Amino acid sequence: MTTGLHRVRASNAGPMTLSGTNSYLLTRGETVWVVDPGPADRDHLQELLDVVVATGAHEVGGIVLTHHHADHTDGVAALQRALSAASRRSGRREIPVWAADPHLVPRSTPIPDLIGPMDDPVAEVIRTPGHTGDSLCLLLPGGRLLTGDTVLGHGTSVIMADGSLRTYLDVLGFLRDMAADGTLVSIHPGHGDEIEGPQAIHEHLGALIEHREARIREVQAAMWADLTVDQTVEHLYGEQLSFVPEEHRAQLRSAAALNVEAAIEYLSGN
Fold first, then answer.
1. Where is the Metallo-beta-lactamase domain (predicted)?
2. Is the pLDDT of residue 88 over 70?
3. Which residues have CB under 8 Å from 18's CB, separation 6+?
4. Which CATH number do you get for residue 193?
5. How many domains is the chain partitioned into structurally?
6. Residues contacting 146, CB < 8 A, separation 6+
Protein backbone atom coordinates (compact mmCIF):
# COMPACT_ATOMS: atom_id res chain seq x y z
CA MET A 1 0.00 0.00 0.00
CA THR A 2 1.05 3.60 -0.56
CA THR A 3 2.38 5.64 2.36
CA GLY A 4 0.96 9.17 2.48
CA LEU A 5 3.43 11.95 3.29
CA HIS A 6 2.59 15.39 4.69
CA ARG A 7 5.06 18.13 5.71
CA VAL A 8 4.43 20.68 8.46
CA ARG A 9 7.15 23.35 8.78
CA ALA A 10 7.79 25.03 12.12
CA SER A 11 8.23 28.79 12.40
CA ASN A 12 11.74 28.54 13.84
CA ALA A 13 13.77 29.78 10.88
CA GLY A 14 17.37 30.67 11.68
CA PRO A 15 21.00 30.21 10.66
CA MET A 16 21.04 26.61 11.93
CA THR A 17 17.47 25.66 11.00
CA LEU A 18 17.28 27.30 7.55
CA SER A 19 13.58 27.92 6.79
CA GLY A 20 12.49 26.01 9.91
CA THR A 21 12.27 22.42 11.14
CA ASN A 22 10.24 20.11 8.92
CA SER A 23 7.91 17.74 10.75
CA TYR A 24 6.32 14.97 8.71
CA LEU A 25 3.21 12.84 8.98
CA LEU A 26 3.09 9.38 7.43
CA THR A 27 -0.33 7.90 6.74
CA ARG A 28 -1.57 4.44 5.89
CA GLY A 29 -5.28 3.74 5.95
CA GLU A 30 -6.66 5.15 9.21
CA THR A 31 -3.27 5.28 10.99
CA VAL A 32 -0.82 8.19 11.13
CA TRP A 33 2.79 8.39 12.37
CA VAL A 34 4.54 11.68 13.26
CA VAL A 35 8.20 12.16 12.37
CA ASP A 36 10.14 14.83 14.32
CA PRO A 37 7.52 16.89 16.23
CA GLY A 38 9.89 19.86 16.12
CA PRO A 39 10.21 22.69 18.66
CA ALA A 40 7.99 23.16 21.71
CA ASP A 41 5.90 25.77 19.94
CA ARG A 42 2.16 25.94 20.63
CA ASP A 43 1.24 27.02 17.10
CA HIS A 44 3.32 24.25 15.53
CA LEU A 45 1.81 21.67 17.87
CA GLN A 46 -1.68 22.82 16.96
CA GLU A 47 -0.88 22.67 13.25
CA LEU A 48 0.40 19.10 13.65
CA LEU A 49 -2.79 18.11 15.48
CA ASP A 50 -4.91 19.82 12.83
CA VAL A 51 -3.14 17.89 10.05
CA VAL A 52 -3.56 14.63 11.98
CA VAL A 53 -7.30 15.28 12.05
CA ALA A 54 -7.33 16.35 8.39
CA THR A 55 -5.78 13.04 7.33
CA GLY A 56 -8.86 11.25 8.64
CA ALA A 57 -6.70 9.00 10.82
CA HIS A 58 -8.39 7.29 13.76
CA GLU A 59 -5.19 5.91 15.27
CA VAL A 60 -1.65 7.21 15.85
CA GLY A 61 0.97 4.53 15.30
CA GLY A 62 3.82 6.37 17.00
CA ILE A 63 6.23 9.30 17.05
CA VAL A 64 9.52 8.75 15.21
CA LEU A 65 12.68 10.81 15.83
CA THR A 66 15.47 11.15 13.27
CA HIS A 67 17.89 12.30 16.00
CA HIS A 68 17.86 13.89 19.45
CA HIS A 69 18.41 17.59 18.72
CA ALA A 70 16.04 20.00 20.42
CA ASP A 71 14.69 21.62 17.25
CA HIS A 72 13.36 18.17 16.29
CA THR A 73 12.38 16.80 19.71
CA ASP A 74 11.38 19.58 22.13
CA GLY A 75 7.76 19.22 21.04
CA VAL A 76 7.65 15.48 21.78
CA ALA A 77 6.23 15.64 25.31
CA ALA A 78 3.36 18.00 24.47
CA LEU A 79 2.46 16.12 21.29
CA GLN A 80 2.60 12.74 23.02
CA ARG A 81 0.33 14.02 25.81
CA ALA A 82 -2.20 15.42 23.34
CA LEU A 83 -2.26 12.34 21.13
CA SER A 84 -2.22 9.86 24.03
CA ALA A 85 -5.13 11.67 25.72
CA ALA A 86 -7.19 11.32 22.56
CA SER A 87 -6.17 7.66 22.25
CA ARG A 88 -7.15 6.86 25.84
CA ARG A 89 -10.56 8.45 25.34
CA SER A 90 -11.13 5.98 22.52
CA GLY A 91 -9.76 3.06 24.55
CA ARG A 92 -6.32 2.87 22.90
CA ARG A 93 -2.80 2.80 24.36
CA GLU A 94 -0.32 5.60 25.04
CA ILE A 95 1.47 6.76 21.91
CA PRO A 96 5.03 5.35 21.69
CA VAL A 97 8.07 7.52 20.95
CA TRP A 98 10.89 5.82 19.03
CA ALA A 99 14.53 6.95 18.93
CA ALA A 100 17.81 5.39 17.84
CA ASP A 101 19.28 6.14 21.29
CA PRO A 102 16.55 6.29 23.95
CA HIS A 103 19.08 7.56 26.52
CA LEU A 104 19.09 10.88 24.67
CA VAL A 105 15.32 11.41 24.53
CA PRO A 106 13.22 11.05 27.71
CA ARG A 107 10.37 8.51 27.58
CA SER A 108 11.48 7.11 24.23
CA THR A 109 12.08 3.46 23.35
CA PRO A 110 14.40 1.81 20.79
CA ILE A 111 13.18 2.30 17.26
CA PRO A 112 12.24 -0.85 15.34
CA ASP A 113 13.78 -1.62 11.96
CA LEU A 114 10.40 -1.25 10.27
CA ILE A 115 7.63 1.25 11.01
CA GLY A 116 4.08 -0.05 10.70
CA PRO A 117 2.97 -3.56 9.74
CA MET A 118 5.90 -5.93 9.36
CA ASP A 119 4.48 -7.47 6.18
CA ASP A 120 3.83 -4.07 4.56
CA PRO A 121 5.73 -1.32 6.44
CA VAL A 122 5.11 2.38 5.98
CA ALA A 123 8.87 3.02 6.31
CA GLU A 124 12.20 1.25 6.68
CA VAL A 125 14.65 2.65 9.22
CA ILE A 126 18.15 3.27 7.86
CA ARG A 127 20.84 4.10 10.44
CA THR A 128 22.87 7.06 9.17
CA PRO A 129 25.22 8.23 11.95
CA GLY A 130 27.50 11.12 11.10
CA HIS A 131 25.78 14.42 11.84
CA THR A 132 25.08 12.86 15.23
CA GLY A 133 25.71 9.38 16.55
CA ASP A 134 21.98 8.62 16.62
CA SER A 135 20.96 9.98 13.21
CA LEU A 136 18.66 7.91 11.03
CA CYS A 137 16.65 8.15 7.81
CA LEU A 138 13.29 6.68 6.86
CA LEU A 139 12.84 5.06 3.46
CA LEU A 140 9.23 5.03 2.30
CA PRO A 141 7.85 2.64 -0.31
CA GLY A 142 8.53 4.00 -3.78
CA GLY A 143 11.87 5.60 -2.90
CA ARG A 144 11.04 8.68 -0.82
CA LEU A 145 13.67 9.28 1.88
CA LEU A 146 13.20 11.36 5.03
CA THR A 147 16.70 12.43 6.02
CA GLY A 148 16.43 14.54 9.18
CA ASP A 149 19.68 16.51 9.37
CA THR A 150 21.74 13.90 7.52
CA VAL A 151 20.99 15.66 4.22
CA LEU A 152 19.54 19.18 4.15
CA GLY A 153 17.61 20.82 1.34
CA HIS A 154 20.60 23.09 0.81
CA GLY A 155 23.88 23.74 2.57
CA THR A 156 25.83 21.28 4.69
CA SER A 157 25.19 19.61 8.03
CA VAL A 158 27.36 20.21 11.07
CA ILE A 159 29.30 17.20 12.35
CA MET A 160 28.53 17.33 16.05
CA ALA A 161 30.87 16.16 18.82
CA ASP A 162 29.05 12.80 19.02
CA GLY A 163 29.14 12.41 15.24
CA SER A 164 31.86 11.34 12.84
CA LEU A 165 33.00 12.81 9.55
CA ARG A 166 34.38 9.45 8.40
CA THR A 167 31.06 7.74 9.05
CA TYR A 168 29.18 10.66 7.51
CA LEU A 169 31.13 10.39 4.26
CA ASP A 170 30.37 6.66 4.17
CA VAL A 171 26.67 7.43 4.66
CA LEU A 172 26.66 10.03 1.87
CA GLY A 173 28.35 7.54 -0.44
CA PHE A 174 25.80 4.86 0.46
CA LEU A 175 22.89 7.21 -0.23
CA ARG A 176 24.48 8.35 -3.49
CA ASP A 177 24.68 4.71 -4.59
CA MET A 178 20.99 4.34 -3.76
CA ALA A 179 20.25 7.31 -6.00
CA ALA A 180 22.46 5.91 -8.77
CA ASP A 181 20.52 2.64 -8.91
CA GLY A 182 17.16 4.42 -8.79
CA THR A 183 16.24 3.36 -5.25
CA LEU A 184 15.79 7.00 -4.21
CA VAL A 185 13.33 9.22 -6.06
CA SER A 186 13.07 12.13 -3.61
CA ILE A 187 14.69 13.45 -0.45
CA HIS A 188 12.60 15.11 2.25
CA PRO A 189 15.01 16.85 4.65
CA GLY A 190 14.68 18.06 8.22
CA HIS A 191 15.37 21.59 6.99
CA GLY A 192 14.86 23.10 3.55
CA ASP A 193 12.90 21.88 0.55
CA GLU A 194 12.61 18.51 -1.15
CA ILE A 195 15.10 17.26 -3.73
CA GLU A 196 13.27 15.52 -6.54
CA GLY A 197 14.59 12.88 -8.94
CA PRO A 198 17.45 10.34 -8.75
CA GLN A 199 19.78 12.48 -10.89
CA ALA A 200 19.27 15.61 -8.78
CA ILE A 201 19.79 13.58 -5.60
CA HIS A 202 22.94 11.96 -7.00
CA GLU A 203 24.36 15.36 -7.97
CA HIS A 204 23.45 16.91 -4.61
CA LEU A 205 25.09 14.10 -2.63
CA GLY A 206 28.12 14.16 -4.90
CA ALA A 207 28.50 17.89 -4.28
CA LEU A 208 28.28 17.34 -0.52
CA ILE A 209 31.02 14.70 -0.67
CA GLU A 210 33.25 16.91 -2.82
CA HIS A 211 32.73 19.84 -0.44
CA ARG A 212 33.69 17.75 2.59
CA GLU A 213 36.76 16.33 0.87
CA ALA A 214 37.88 19.83 -0.13
CA ARG A 215 37.45 21.01 3.47
CA ILE A 216 39.50 18.05 4.71
CA ARG A 217 42.35 19.09 2.40
CA GLU A 218 42.09 22.70 3.62
CA VAL A 219 42.14 21.64 7.26
CA GLN A 220 45.13 19.39 6.57
CA ALA A 221 47.00 22.37 5.10
CA ALA A 222 46.10 24.40 8.19
CA MET A 223 47.44 21.62 10.43
CA TRP A 224 50.70 21.60 8.47
CA ALA A 225 50.88 25.35 9.08
CA ASP A 226 50.37 24.75 12.83
CA LEU A 227 47.16 26.79 12.92
CA THR A 228 44.88 26.36 15.92
CA VAL A 229 41.21 25.44 15.49
CA ASP A 230 40.19 29.08 15.98
CA GLN A 231 42.80 30.24 13.48
CA THR A 232 41.64 27.61 11.00
CA VAL A 233 38.03 28.72 11.39
CA GLU A 234 39.03 32.31 10.73
CA HIS A 235 41.15 31.28 7.74
CA LEU A 236 38.46 29.11 6.14
CA TYR A 237 35.24 30.82 7.22
CA GLY A 238 36.21 34.33 8.29
CA GLU A 239 35.15 36.10 5.10
CA GLN A 240 31.79 34.28 5.00
CA LEU A 241 31.15 35.03 8.67
CA SER A 242 31.83 38.72 8.14
CA PHE A 243 28.64 38.93 6.07
CA VAL A 244 26.51 37.21 8.73
CA PRO A 245 24.42 39.40 11.09
CA GLU A 246 26.34 39.87 14.31
CA GLU A 247 23.66 38.19 16.45
CA HIS A 248 24.19 34.92 14.53
CA ARG A 249 27.95 35.08 14.10
CA ALA A 250 29.00 33.33 17.33
CA GLN A 251 26.61 30.43 16.72
CA LEU A 252 27.86 29.89 13.18
CA ARG A 253 31.49 30.23 14.27
CA SER A 254 30.92 27.47 16.83
CA ALA A 255 29.37 25.28 14.13
CA ALA A 256 32.36 25.91 11.87
CA ALA A 257 34.70 24.96 14.72
CA LEU A 258 32.85 21.65 15.13
CA ASN A 259 33.35 20.89 11.44
CA VAL A 260 37.04 21.76 11.67
CA GLU A 261 37.44 19.51 14.72
CA ALA A 262 35.63 16.71 12.87
CA ALA A 263 38.07 17.05 9.97
CA ILE A 264 41.03 16.96 12.36
CA GLU A 265 39.63 13.78 13.92
CA TYR A 266 39.21 12.31 10.42
CA LEU A 267 42.82 13.16 9.55
CA SER A 268 43.92 11.54 12.81
CA GLY A 269 42.46 8.27 11.55
CA ASN A 270 39.25 8.31 13.58
1. 20-191
2. no
3. 152, 153, 154, 155, 191, 192
4. 3.60.15.10
5. 1
6. 24, 35, 66, 123, 137, 138, 140, 188, 189
